[in-house]
Design goal:
Shape of chain A: globular
Number of strands of chain A: 14
Number of helices of chain B: 12
Strand order of the largest sheet of chain B: 1-2
CATH architecture of the largest domain in chain A: 3-Layer(aba) Sandwich
Largest sheet of chain A: 5 strands, parallel
Shape of chain B: globular
CATH class of the largest domain in chain A: Alpha Beta
Oligomer: heterodimer
Mean pLDDT of chain A: 87
Structural class of chain A: alpha/beta
CATH topology of the largest domain in chain A: Rossmann fold
Strand content of chain B: under 5%
Helix content of chain B: over 70%
Strand content of chain A: 15-25%
Order of helices and strands of chain B: HHHHEEHHHHHHHH
Largest interface: A-B, 33 and 33 residues
Structural class of chain B: mainly alpha
Helix content of chain A: 40-55%
Order of helices and strands of chain A: HEHHEHEHEEHEHEHEHEHEHHHHEEEE
CATH superfamily of the largest domain in chain A: Response regulator
Radius of gyration of chain B: 19 Å
Number of domains of chain A: 2
Low-confidence stretches of chain A: 1-10, 12-30
Number of helices of chain A: 14
Radius of gyration of chain A: 23 Å
Chain lengths: 383, 296
C-alpha cells in the first residue's frame, strides 16, 4: 500500500517540529564538552535583579581565576571546563539550570548569591552527591556535607554594629527586606554588634519602592543611625528618598555586606558618607595584581563579588587539583578537598581576601568597612 | 497627632497615584464592561517612554509628560482596535475581551522586558526639582505635592467632562447601550477609541510620576499596581470617576497606616481586608448611583 503524500510529509514534519521545539525550549540538554575534562558548573545569576550586583561580577572573577589557574591544571595534566547556566535570579530557573549542569556531569556547582536559590538547590546537590558552593546568606541543608556557603555574614556584619557604637550612634534603626531571609539574617547579625540592639525596626518588601511611611516612622523614632539591610538598588532608592524627604541630615547611614556599586548607581550623591561592610574593597592589601588583571580583561573595576568569585575560583581550582592527586575527581572527593583547599598554599599565593571554608559548610571571612568614592567606586572607608 | 498627619499625607500621595491608575482602568470597565488588564502594560510603557525621553534625550520630566500621555493613549487605542473591538459582537464578549487583553498584557510586558534587558532602570537625577517642604508638622516633597495636585486635578476634570460635555454624554450613551447609541448617530468606535485614549493617557501620566517619585522603571511596574487599582475601583464603585478617586485615596491611606502603625507586612492584609469588606457590606462601592448610565 502506498503512503499518501500528506501522511509522508507529516512523518517528516512532526519529528522535525518536535526537534525544533525541544531545541527552542532548551530541552535538548547541555553540551557534554570534552569528556575527559572536569566540568565545573557555574550557576550564576546572569539576568534578573541579582545579575548586576552579584551574578555578573562573580562570574567574571570566577572565570578570571580559572583562566589564571590553567598553568597549574596543565602541570597536573587536568582539563577543566566551565559549564555556565543562568539562574535568572529565580528559584525555578536555578533548579532547571542545576539539573542541566548535573546532566552535563558537573561534580561541583557554584551559585553566586540569593538564599532562596541556594536553599532550593542544596537538597538536590546533597542527593546527587555534587559539591555545591553557594553565596547564600542563610543556612543550607547540608546532608553528608556537600553544601558549602562561601559568605560569612557574621564577622563583617557584626563589625558594623561595633562601628556604629564607636561612632557615637545611640539610637539605631534598621530597614530590613523581611521577605528575603538573607536580609533578616543580616539585620539580626548587625544587631548582635549593638549593645542595646535596634531602637526601631522597619520591615519592607524587596519590591517596595515607596518608603515615605517607613521613613516617617524612623524620624518619629528619632534615630541617629540607620542600617539598610535590603537589596543594593533598594538601599540606593532609600537613601535618595531620605534626602528628598529631609530629616536625615545628621543620621549615620550604614549598609550590610550585600551592598554593591548598584547602590551608588541609584543613589549617586545621596550615598555620600554611606558605610557598609564588604568582604573586599579595592585598595586592600595584596589585591593590586587582581585589580589590574580584572580591569584588563573586562574593562571595568572589580567589585566585592568579583573578588569573591576570584577567591572561590582559586579555591575550586585547588580542590580539583587536590582531588585529582588523590584519585578520581567527583563530588565526594571535591567535598573532602574543599575545606583544606580554601587555605592551601595555591590559594594563599593568589589570595585577595580571607576566606576559609569549614567542613560543616560554613565560611569565615573578616571583611573590611567600605564607602563610595566620588566616582562611585568602592574604597576602604576612612575612620 | 503630628505622626498621624504625616502618615495621612503620605497615604494621600500614594493614593492619588492609585486613583489616577484606577480612574483610567474604571473608565474602560464602565464604558465597555470589559476587564482590560492590558491597561497595566500601558502603564508600564508610560514609564518606559518617560525613562527613554529623560535618559536618552535629556528632557525634563515636565516636557515628557504630554508626549508620554500621547504615546500611552495611542498605545491603548491600538490595544482597543487589535485586542478588543472585533470581539465585542460575540456572545461571550466580556470573557473573550478579557482573555485577549491578557494576551496583550503578556506581549507588551515581554517586549518591555526585552527592551530593558530584564533590568530595573532609574529615572535620571534632576529630571524634576525635588526638595523637601515643611508645612507645619508635615513634610512633603515638591514632587509628591505636584503628584497630588495633578492627579486630583485631572480626575476632577475628567469627572466634570463626563458630566457636562457632549463627549461625556456620548460616552455615557455608548456605555448604556452600544447599539442604541449607534442608532442615535453616535460613532461608537470613535467614542470607544476616545475612552481608551483618555484611559491610556491617565495611565501614562501616573506611570511617569511613579517612575520619578519612587525611582523605578521596570517591565512589571504596571502589573504591580493592577490589583491595587482593582481594589480602589471596588472600594470607590465600579465606573465612578469620583469613586476611583475616593477608592484610591482610601486604599493609599489604609496602606500607609498599616505600615506606619503596624508593620509593612500587614499592608496587603489591611488593603485586601478592606476590599473584601466592601464586597460583602457594600458591593456597589462608596459611590453607588442609581443607574449604571450615570456612573460613568
Amino acid at each position: 500500500m502506498s503512503m499518501k503524500p500528506t501522511r509522508r510529509l507529516s512523518r517528516l514534519i512532526v519529528p522535525g517540529a518536535i526537534g525544533v521545539l525541544l531545541a527552542a525550549t532548551g530541552c535538548a540538554g547541555p553540551s557534554a564538552g570534552d569528556s575527559d575534562a572536569v566540568q565545573v558548573g557555574l550557576l550564576a545569576n546572569l539576568s534578573g535583579p541579582a545579575a548586576t550586583s552579584f551574578g555578573v561580577p562573580f562570574q567574571h572573577g570566577f572565570e578570571l581565576a580559572l583562566q589564571q589557574a590553567k598553568a597549574a591544571f596543565d602541570d597536573a595534566d587536568v582539563k577543566v571546563e566551565i559549564q555556565t547556566q543562568d539562574a535568572k535570579s529565580e528559584v525555578t530557573s536555578a533548579v532547571t539550570g542545576y539539573n542541566k549542569l548535573r546532566q552535563a556531569g558537573a561534580p561541583i556547582v557554584i551559585n553566586d548569591s540569593q538564599s532562596p536559590l541556594g536553599q532550593a538547590v542544596a537538597p538536590l546537590a546533597n542527593d546527587d552527591k555534587i559539591a555545591f558552593l553557594s553565596g547564600a546568606g542563610s543556612e543550607l541543608e547540608n546532608k553528608d556535607g556537600f553544601a558549602f556557603r562561601f559568605t560569612d555574614l557574621g564577622t563583617p556584619t557584626t563589625a558594623m554594629g561595633q562601628y556604629l557604637t564607636e561612632h557615637g550612634a545611640k539610637r539605631v534603626g534598621v530597614i530590613v527586606a523581611s521577605d528575603n531571609p538573607s536580609f533578616a539574617t543580616l539585620a539580626d547579625t548587625t544587631e548582635k554588634g549593638l549593645p542595646g540592639g535596634f531602637d526601631s525596626r522597619q520591615e519592607v518588601a524587596s519590591t517596595d519602592t515607596d518608603f515615605s511611611a517607613v521613613l516617617a516612622n524612623l524620624r518619629d523614632d528619632d534615630v541617629d543611625a540607620v542600617v539598610l539591610s535590603v537589596l543594593p538598588a533598594q538601599a540606593g532608592n532609600l537613601m535618595l528618598q531620605m534626602d528628598q524627604s529631609g530629616g536625615f541630615d545628621h543620621v549615620i547611614r550604614a549598609g550590610t555586606v550585600a551592598i554593591s556599586s548598584e547602590t551608588y548607581t541609584v543613589a549617586e550623591d545621596a550615598a555620600d558618607d554611606f558605610v557598609f561592610p564588604q568582604v573586599w574593597a579595592p585598595g586592600m592589601q595584596g589585591g593590586s595584581s587582581f585589580e589590574k588583571a580584572y580591569a584588563d580583561k573586562y574593562d571595568e573595576s572589580p567589585t566585592a563579588y568579583s573578588a569573591l568569585g576570584y577567591q572561590v575560583g582559586w579555591t575550586v581550582a585547588a580542590a580539583i587539583l587536590a582531588a585529582d592527586e588523590d584519585g578520581d575527581v567527583d563530588g565526594a572527593s571535591l567535598r573532602d578537598a574543599i575545606p583544606a583547599a580554601s587555605t592551601s598554599d595555591l590559594v594563599a599565593e593568589h589570595s585577595i581576601l580571607s576566606l576559609e571554608l569549614t567542613k560543616d559548610g560554613a565560611a569565615v571571612s573578616e571583611g573590611v568597612m567600605a564607602s563610595f568614592a566620588d566616582d562611585g567606586s568602592m574604597q576602604v572607608a576612612s575612620n | 497627632m503630628d505622626f498621624w498627619l504625616q502618615q495621612t499625607v503620605n497615604g494621600i500621595v500614594l493614593g492619588s497615584v492609585y486613583a489616577l491608575y484606577a480612574s483610567g482602568f474604571g473608565l474602560v470597565m464602565a464604558s465597555l464592561r470589559i476587564f482590560h488588564v492590558a491597561h497595566a502594560a500601558v502603564f508600564t510603557w508610560g514609564a518606559v517612554v518617560a525613562w527613554d525621553l529623560t535618559t536618552r534625550l535629556g528632557w525634563p520630566l515636565v516636557a515628557t509628560l504630554p508626549v508620554v500621555m500621547l504615546a500611552a493613549g495611542l498605545l491603548n487605542v491600538a490595544a482597543y482596535f487589535l485586542l478588543i473591538r472585533h470581539l465585542l459582537k460575540r456572545q461571550d464578549a466580556e470573557l473573550a475581551a478579557f482573555i485577549s487583553s491578557m494576551g496583550g498584557l503578556i506581549i507588551l510586558v515581554e517586549v518591555a522586558h526585552h527592551l530593558l534587558d530584564g533590568a530595573v532602570e532609574r529615572m535620571p537625577a534632576g529630571v524634576f526639582p525635588v526638595s523637601p517642604l515643611e508645612l507645619g508638622p508635615v513634610r512633603i516633597t515638591t514632587l509628591h505635592a505636584t503628584m497630588v495636585v495633578v492627579s486630583i486635578g485631572l480626575i476632577a476634570l475628567l469627572a466634570w467632562g463626563m458630566a457636562h460635555t457632549q463627549a461625556g454624554r456620548e460616552v455615557r450613551t455608548v456605555a448604556a447601550d452600544r447599539e442604541t447609541a449607534s442608532l442615535l448617530g453616535i460613532n461608537v468606535d470613535r467614542v470607544s477609541a476616545g475612552v481608551f485614549f483618555a484611559s491610556g493617557a491617565l495611565a501614562g501620566l501616573a506611570a511617569a510620576m511613579v517612575a520619578t517619585a519612587f525611582n523605578v522603571v521596570s517591565a512589571d511596574l504596571g502589573s504591580g499596581y493592577l490589583v491595587i487599582a482593582l481594589a480602589a475601583m471596588v472600594v470607590g464603585g465600579f465606573g465612578s470617576v469620583a469613586g476611583a478617586l475616593a477608592g484610591g485615596l482610601l486604599i493609599g491611606v489604609a496602606s500607609t497606616y498599616a505600615t506606619g502603625y503596624l508593620d509593612s507586612s500587614y499592608r496587603d492584609l489591611v488593603v485586601f481586608a478592606l476590599l473584601l469588606g466592601f464586597l460583602v457590606v457594600r458591593p456597589t462601592g462608596l459611590f453607588h448611583t442609581r443607574s449604571e448610565l450615570a456612573r460613568v
